[in-house]
Amino acid sequence: MFIKILTVLFGLSTGFACYYLLFSFFPQLHWLLISTLTLLGLVLGYLLGNALLNFLWTKIEESFQKITVPELIIGGLGMLFGLILSGLSVVAMPIHNLPGPLGNLLALMIILIITGITTQVTHRKKEEILNYLGTLPKNPEKGGVKGRSPGGRSPYKVLDTSSIIDGRIMDVSQTEFLEGIFVVPGFVVAELQRIADSSDSLKRNRGRRGLDILNKMQKDTALSIRIYDQDFEDLSDVDTKIVRLAKVLDAKVITNDYNLNKVAELYGVPVLNINELANAIKPIVLPGEEVTVQVIKDGKEFGQGIAYLEDGTMIVVDGGRQFIGDEIMVTVTSVLQTAAGRMIFAKPKEAYVARASSLS
User: Fold this and answer.
1) H or E segment to which residue 94 belongs
2) Mean pLDDT value across the chain
3) By mean pLDDT, which of 58-72, 255-269, 304-318, 336-350 is the weakest?
4) Please, which residues bridge with residue 337 across strands?
5) Would you call the peptide bond into 137 cis, given omega within 30 degrees of 0 as the criterion?
6) Are residues 69 and 183 in the same domain?
7) Which domain holds residue 156?
8) If you ran DSSP here, which 8-state letter would residue 303 be given?
9) Are residues 271 and 312 in the same domain?
């Protein structure tokens, strides 16, 4: 109904403009011809207005569906500030002394330029403004909106794609060792969906696993998890977007991606690496201790055997090749900490070596 009213008004305006121009410039024309041309202008104006206004209204509706209420308020405040600033600038300048309509035209240009600049600046800084005002995300424990916890630290933890697919973050969060609100960016969810729709079966299974884990975390009432819908359209790389979001929210990034870890360190963003956590909580085995393991395969060096502890730590058994498939007791000789994790070197107890020699 609103569009129809605007269309009729647009058509009437076009018809009146045709009548005014024809009568002003060609007063000798017959009134019937002027009326006919005016009616034609009204019909053309109605048709053009109907098509144009419907197109513009569709675009406006799409834009309003994508924008949130806080962003709309921020944009309105930016425009209002621009109008006030441009109005003061026009008043301060001696524009009214310019001849003819030049002063009005220049004043209009100043208003449009300053208002456009302030609106664009507020749009680009909307995430920082919203975070400063504490509108995203909400803290359900306090029943309000907060940007920081009482201790002065941000309660937000931004999850990346690798940490969600890995799945261990759900187990860790359920132990309540990690406090605060987990933030999952919308572009991370989109990346999970792209992986789940991949033609490669391995990638597809990983993507579906990540979406399933995310759904389970959302259904867990003991966890506080929020989906951050806004995107950083000026950035294309997902890792860079995650780091930008973490800086905006003053949050920490949870990941097990080595490259993202390094990028976040460059930007000064704290990182909680799941792999580092897993390595840190592995049981400590000291040289001289005895452990029972099952040798399962050959090692790289001659005569070596490979075994694993229950937590997945690899044990290189010197001379353990002859015990492949057997469960034996070994004595730890040394422990090596590498970037990939902890490696343990050991040798079989003399009793097992003697028994193997007698059997051979």
Assistant:
1) none
2) 76
3) 58-72
4) 342
5) yes
6) no
7) 138-280
8) T
9) no
- Supply the pLDDT for residue 23: 60
What is the edge-to-edge ordering of all strands in the sheet holding 181-185?
Answer: 225-228, 181-185, 156-159, 252-255, 271-273
285 assigned to some structural domain: no
Residues 6+ apart with CB under 8 A from 72: 64
- The pLDDT of residue 282: 75
Convert the pLDDT of each residue in 152-202 to its tens digit. 456 789 999 999 998 888 888 888 788 788 999 989 999 999 999 988 888
Q: Give yes or no: residues 210 and 324 share one domain.
A: no
Decide if 321 contacts 296 (C-beta within 8 A).
no
Phi, psi of 225 (to 5 degrees): -130, 135
Number of domains in the chain: 3
- Helix, strand, or coil here: 26? coil
Residues 162 and 259 in one domain: yes
In this prediction, residues 125-144 reach a mean pLDDT of 52
Which pLDDT value is given to residue 29? Answer: 58
Give the global pTM: 0.51
The phi and psi torsions of 331 (rounded to 5 degrees) equal -110, 125
Q: Is residue 133 part of a domain?
A: no
Q: CB under 8 Å to 249, separation ≥6 — which residues?
A: 131, 136, 154, 156, 158, 183
Where in the chain does DSSP place strands (E)? 138-139, 144-145, 156-159, 181-185, 225-228, 252-255, 271-273, 290-294, 297-298, 305-308, 314-317, 327-338, 341-348
Residue by residue, DSSP assigns 127-147 as: HHHHHHHT-SSEETTTTEE-S
